[in-house]
Each structure stands twice: as structure tokens, then as C-alpha cells.
Amino acid sequence: MASYRIISSDSHVFEPADLWTTRIDAAFRERAPRVVRDGQYDQWVVEGNKKVGSLGLVSQAGVRFEAPEKITFGGSYQDVRPGGWDAHEHVKDMAIDGVSGGVLYPSNGLFFFRIPDSALLSAIFRAYNDWLAEFCRAYPKQLKGIAMVNVDDPTEGVKELQRAAKLGLSGAMIAVSPLPDRPYSLPTYEPFWAAAQDLDRPISLHTATQRPGPGVPTLDNASQTATQRANIDHWVRTSLCDMLYAGVFERYPKLKVAAVEFELSWVPYFLRMLDYVYVERQQQATYRFKNQMLPSDFFHSNIYVSFQEDDLGIRLRDLIGVDQLMWGSDYPHAESTWPKSQEILDRILTDVPEAEKAKIAGENAAWLYHFDK
Predict the structure, then answer these.
(1) Distance CA 262, CA 206 (A)
(2) Which of 50, 65, 136, 175 could form a disulfide with 143 if both were Cys (CB 3.0 to 4.6 A apart)?
């Protein structure tokens, strides 16, 4: 048994097949996400018949340890662990894994950020947030839900963030990459950053949540190349740059942002380039911070990074900031560490001092998401 408390800063629910057909606003019922049988697999479709995402890679927990060759893109609900949609079973699976708490993100819902119709997207998110709040209510001290919020219109995003907070959800995820003409550097997002700070709700940028734009898979072409996957941190680096260089964290010093499921090793070089450009390219990085602060200073005070198995990133932890590192299991996805999370964490953290192990494995996430409340 580990000597430290383990909290997963990146776990997932698996949305029930009828979630949106039974809960979404009536005006969107015919266009809502639904599950259909596609050959030997189940498939999520939206807008009537447009395929979106795939069930296999987000449902096959444990298969990588037993028979990795059996991992498939396609999947069926009959093969998904009930812990995906049943809170009681979810907590049982956490116990098997030695995990005392989990921060919960969607599974299939990640891919819905590609839906171009903003009104439909917001309706999908509202229905999901209602269901997720009910899911977490069964174990409020162990399960912390992260709302999905559409910020195509930041004013509407503020309303849903406030509603999600009233529902008891512990944070909100927005697109890791917004619509191409609406980068997070724009002043139009100021009310949203202010609301997140005032509500004490961390904002997450999670992998696979890009809004439609160049280089983003569409609903009709959801596949991702190996090259795109190997460079997945491109999206989060771009959005974090936009926020940092625009002075967002200087204006909202209590705003917290989590970069989720991008691993760690990219961060030290990213920080070096952030400061280099700020110092050497002042004609491009035109916003100037007070008190000789650098962009990396705000990264270290306001941004958290959730990882899964990045041994190299742990060796670079002093450059990233130990207080900002949060481990996550990615349950119940195919690449998750379940049910061997304790074993994997012990290996990754072998040479790490005990106090730092405790922070990385659980204390940082417990503080950010108020697990002791």
C-alpha cells in the first residue's frame, strides 16, 4: 500500500446511452447525441446521423495489461465497466485501484466539442451537467465533477458556470482550443475569467476538446493521425500562451487553470520560450507585466498540470513546479492505469522525496478541488 493519499485529477464517467435523448431540451431532441448499432459496435451519432468519437478507446480499462492487442477503436456498451455510469460501482473501482477520490470528466462528451452549432452544443452541455451533478451527489467527498461549458458566447458561458456551481460541480472545462477567430486573449472572455475566480472554480483545458477549425477532426472525419496525437500539446500550449501574454492572470490572480491529459515533459521548454519571447520580442509580446514579473511566474502561480505516466516529466519536476503537478488515472479509458495505479505511481515516484510524493499523488488535487470539504 502507498504511504500517500492518491487522488485522480483526471478520471472519467461514461455517459449513459440515453443521457441526451431523455434529458436535453425538447427543441434539440431530434438532433441530440444518441447511440446506434454500427456493425459489431455501438456508435455515438449527432445531428441525426453524423458519427462522433468512438467507444473503444474510452472504455477498455485494464485491457492494456491483459491483452493490449485486443484494444479497438470500436466498442460496445455491454463491454463497458458499470462504474462509468453508476456512482456506486465507480467508487468500488476506485477502491480496487487504491484511489480515494476522483475528478470526473466526460468520455464521449469530449468529442462533442467538435459540434459546430453553438446552441446545440450548449444544450448538450446543460443536460450533461445535470446528470453529472446527480452522479457526484452520491459521494460528494470522493467524486468531484467538472462541468462542460461552451464559451463561444462568454456571457452565456458565465451563466452556465454559475448554474454548474449551484449544482455542486467543482470546476468547468472549456475547449482546449476555441473557435479560430476567438482566441482566449480577447477581452470578450474577461467576464468568464472573473466569474471563475469569484466562484473559486478551476478551469480545465482537456485533451480532445478543440472547437472546429484548421487541423481539427470534423464530425464526419473524427480520426486522428499518429502525428497529430504525438503533438497533442500544441493546442494547450497555444491557449495558455494566449492567456498568459494577454495578462489574464495578472488581472485575475486567483484564477486557476488545469492542463489535463497532456503529460508534463513539454512544460520546461514551453516556459523557457514563454520568457524568451516576452523579453526578446517585445514588439510581439506587447502586454507588459508589473513588478518585473515574467510569464513563467504566472504559470507557476496559476496553472496546474495533470499527468498519467510521464517519468521524464517527474525528473523535471523542479523546473515545472512540484506544487502544480497532479496525477490522474484516466479511468475507464483504454490507456488508463486502472487497476494498477498504485504500482505505476510507486515506480514513477521511486526517487521522489516523500513530501513531494504526497503532493503529486493527491495533496495538490485535494487542495485545488476541495476534497476535504
Answers:
(1) 8
(2) 136
CB within 8 Å of 280: residues ≥ 6 apart: none
pLDDT at site 48: 83
Letter string b/e over residues 163-193, b meaning 16 or more CB atoms within 10 A of that residue's CB: bbbebebbbbbbbbbbeeebbbbeeebeebb
Which domains are delineated in the chain?
7-15+82-369 (3.20.20.140)
Encode pLDDT of 262-303 as tens digits. 999 999 999 999 999 999 999 999 999 999 999 999 999 999
The sheet carrying 171-174 orders its strands as 7-12, 101-105, 143-148, 171-174, 203-206, 257-260, 303-307, 325-327
Q: Whats the size of the chain, residue-wise? A: 373
Order of strands across the sheet that contains 41-46? 34-38, 41-46, 50-51
**Rounded to an integer, what distance in angstroms lies between the CA atom of residue 160 and that of residue 353?**
41
Q: Grid coordinates standing for 127?
A: 443536460
Return phi, psi of residue 190, to 5°. Answer: -55, -45
Query: Looking at residue 222, what is its pLDDT?
Result: 60
Q: Could you give the angle at the alpha carbon of 109 between the alpha carbons of 104 and 114, nearest 5°?
A: 135
| DSSP β-bridge partners for residue 173 | 148, 204
Quote the strand ranges of 118-216, DSSP E: 143-148, 171-174, 203-206
**Which residues are bridge partners to 42 per DSSP?**
37, 75
Residue 205's DSSP bridge partners are: 174, 259
Q: According to the model, what pLDDT value does residue 223 have? A: 66
Give pLDDT, residue 70: 87
From the centroid of its chain, how far is CA 109?
11
Q: Which three cell numbers stand for residue 13?
A: 464517467
3-class DSSP assignment, residue 60: coil
Low-confidence ranges of the chain (pLDDT < 50): none
Q: Cell 474510452 belongs to which residue?
A: 58
Q: What pLDDT does 219 receive?
A: 77
Query: Alpha-carbon distance 274 to 276, whole Å?
Result: 6
Tell me the one-letter amino acid at 309.
E
Provide the pLDDT for residue 1: 55
Among candidate residues 225, 221, 129, the one with its CA nearest the CA of residue 171: 129
Distance (Å, whole) CA 373 – CA 370? 6
Strand residues in the chain grouped as ranges (E)? 7-12, 34-38, 41-46, 50-51, 101-105, 143-148, 171-174, 203-206, 257-260, 303-307, 325-327
